[in-house]
Amino acid sequence: MATTTRTPGRARRSGRGAVDVQPETAPAAPADNAQQAAELSTSAWRWIRAAAIALTLFLAWQLLLVVQGWVGALLTIVLFVVFGAVVTFVAQPIVALLERARIPHVPAVLAGLLCVVAAVAGLLYLVAGPLAREVTSLAGQAPALISDVQQRIAGIQQTLNAHGITVGTGGGLGGLLGAKGASVASHVGEIVIAGVTGVVTVLIDTVIVLVIAFWLLNDGPALRRGFIGMLPGRARDHADFAIDAVRVVIGGYVRAQLFLACVIGVLAWVGCTVIGVPFPIVVGAAAGVFELVPLLGPFLGGAVGVALALTHGPATAVETVVLFVVIHVIEGYILAPRIQARFVRLHPLVAFLSLVAGIEVAGLLGALFAVPVTSLGAVFLRASVGDWRASRPDLFAPQARDAGLEQRRRRLLGQFRLFRRPPVELVVRHGPIGWLRRRFS
């Protein structure tokens, strides 16, 4: 007879045919529930943090786009003010002349702006028509001109190859001109259409610039007094000097540069017409526009003239090079020292470095404004140093030189010389044999 033993949670039957009853499943411990809740909370927190980071990045990107739009709008306003100031600098002498003739201020301002607009319109009337015809003709002849240049380059390559100088075939400059030039020629119509559609924008921008120039000319003194009045007493003299420096340096530079551009453009136009360069008005316009770029402008304008002269023949190209060299000499040694050098008192190296920096920072606009801005900075620097010298003369007073200190420094630097004495001097004094004996003994 089998007996059954009951134990808590399990039943066991002893004897023959005994059956073990497995223990019942125990309920989950409170520690396991807490661990699962903690893991769930950690996972949820990670997802929330990832979503928060993604949302923050998205909002930061949107804020960056908004700030970029604000910066672009601010830059547009600054450019409008800058070009309005340029028009103001050009019209200011006319307004002053009219006011000296006892014409009221507002009519004098309007008349000055009208003179500037009339001068620009007259120049466009005289140049735009022939220039448009020449540009249209140049666009029509572009494929033939490119083919002609390609044939000339191929002839030069054959000549050089005949003398044993290999300059490449097929993929050289001729092939590049043939591929790129044909592509540019095929898109000339699209470029012209895009230019025509941009006329409306240019007209609107011109009106805005003229309005800004009018208010600067009309209320310039009042705006200046209001700006200076908001500054502390110690800064007012410095601000007044800064405004005068901008007016004198930048205004004079702008007027001088525009006058030089007109003169160089006319000289290039007349010279190319006499030589027989194709499209002389295009060359003159390019030379005048590139003249606004300091230092590099004459070379860029000359490159346009030489490129068009090459389509007529090598002799015409050489004559064009000579023409632009003469124009550069006239500009550099006759016109610029008397007109431009009064406003750009910089060493050529400093002007060149400022031009390179301006091109790297802002491209063409940087090239236009780099040199005058650097000249203005040089004026502020000289004024600051002059004020410092006047306030602290003891720092700039000459001091007695220490002869022993100077000799010690010279001996120290003399240790880095290849020759203790110049070889030419030793050769002259002792002869070649004596110099060799002294050098290697």
Can you give a write-up of this model?
- This protein is an all-alpha fold and 441 residues long.
- Among the domains are: 49-154 and 201-230, no CATH class; 266-391, no CATH class.
- Helices cover 80% and strands 2% of the residues.
- α1 packs across α6 and α6 runs antiparallel to α7.
- The longest helix is centred in the first third of the chain and has 71 residues, at 30-100.
- It is extended.
Q: Outline of this structure?
A:
The chain is 80% helix and 2% strand.
Number of strands: 2
Note the run of SSEs as H and E.
Answer: EEHHHHHHHHHHHH
As residue ranges, the low-confidence spans are: 1-15, 169-179
Distance between the termini: 130 Å
Q: How much helical structure, as a percent, in the residues?
A: over 70%
The shape is extended
Largest sheet: 2 strands, antiparallel
The structural class is mainly alpha
> Which strand-content bin applies to the residues?
under 5%
Strand order of the largest sheet: 1-2
Query: Radius of gyration, rounded?
Result: 40 Å
Task: Determine the number of helices (DSSP H or I, runs of at least 4 residues).
Answer: 12
Mean pLDDT: 76
